[in-house]
Give the backbone structure.
Amino acid sequence: MDLVNSIKKISKIYRIQNWYHYLGFVILGFILKHSLGIAIFFNLSLAGFLLAYAYSLNDFYDKKMKIRFFLFPLFYVLLVLIFFNVIQIIVSSLFLFVVTTYSSEPFRFKAKPFISSICNGIGFSLLFLLGYFYVPTIDLSGILFFLLLFSLGMIAQFIHEVVHMKKDKINKIITTTVFLGKNRVKKLFYFFLITAILITTWLFYLETVNLFFVFSIAFFTIFFIFKIMKKGVDESLRKKYKVFGIIVGIFCCLSLLIR
């Protein structure tokens, strides 16, 4: 029973239920370029502690959580980075920089329009590169995949901002949505959704992905374009975006394994 309670406590402290699906970005990057193997677990472990740091640091400033909770995953990350290659070290360092400046004083980028949205879009998309750069070679397909996940991540961020718009105003957090208003942000939804379709088409042209992958992303993006046009953005849409995103992500990973 104590073990179960400890697991629940750790899950709550690091908000695992909010970020576990981002580990799929690492898996996607790994299988895009490599065969599945035990090495993926080392990449997932690093990504997990990076996410634990990001969320616990945010709660340290927002909810006055004890400092040791974010120092522990940070210490682990810094300790194991020596076992990864140069590009993965750079990617991890960039992730640490983004999430630290996003949450902490005196930067507090989460309270600044545009910068806050871009930080979230870039930060989580970097996890894809951890898996992709297990062998450190840069190519166009990797860059396009990163931009694809960045585009989809920006949509998730704007949905989050719209849902929390009233709360952010009360807390004097000026997000992009608070600054621009819902109507103008809606145009950004369409821009990034259409961008995702165009990037996927380019990846198909490069023979990086197959038609099954293209249809999965196209269905996902078109579905949410019509959802936003007809019903707008609310908590229900946010949950659907997360659940559908996980399902489509699984299909995309399977399509890469059988290509």
